[in-house]
Amino acid sequence: MSVNLAEEPGYTYKDYITWTGKIRYEIIDGTAYAMAAPSQAHQEILGELHFRLKLFLQGKPCKVFVAPFSVRLNSGSFDDTVVEPDVFVVCDKSKLNGKSVKGAPDMVIEILSPYNTRHDTVIKFRQYQKAGVKEYWTVDPVTKSVVVHVLENGKYISKTYNEDDIISVYTLEGCQINLSEIFYDTLEFDPEEPDESEFITKQKMIEALKYAGVGDEQIKKAVEFAGSRNG
Known about the structure:
It is a single chain. With 231 residues, the chain is an alpha+beta fold. The chain has five helices and 14 strands. The protein has two domains: 147 residues, tt1808, chain A (Alpha-Beta Complex), CATH 3.90.1570.10; 45 residues, no CATH class. It has a six-stranded mixed sheet with strand order 4-7-9-10-11-12, with helices on both faces. α3 links the parallel β9 and β10. The longest helix is centred in the N-terminal third of the chain and has 18 residues.
């Protein structure tokens, strides 16, 4: 969940470790991206996913991590792609040096931001595929859906799951995630509205207002006001 703030290319991990301040950055192909602050829905989902993966992995060699923790996808060459996935699993302990992950995790989960879904669904999708991440999930808090990308012959094969589905984790045999236990109970409007696109638009508006720290009652009033103007 990031927004591109720097167009000047050429940054590497050596630059990344010198940056201080409240704003966190990722680097992709030498370009720096500032990361947006997460919403409550984002953090609820992140916590639930991390809890269930950590519980499953107790006593097993794989480890699950959450951001902020840097992953250097091409540390063996240019070292100019450093990302902070929301949740990820590493099974090869030789990739861990205490400060970062050197190479591709086995599994990565990114929780989408309503501001810029393209960053995770296109830009980071390509990076994870190229780096050899075996399993990549993109989680949408607005539509309450998950797209699972599994690497086969160097390309991702994708499948979409909805909030009532149970996902069998490809990279962790025996691990299953029940999505009905994952998704945060966000404000919703009647899903039987005739215009489904209007319903999704309202949901994205709600999520954006939550990012801004607006309370539930104020959100309801804002959406009702927008609806009256559109009507």
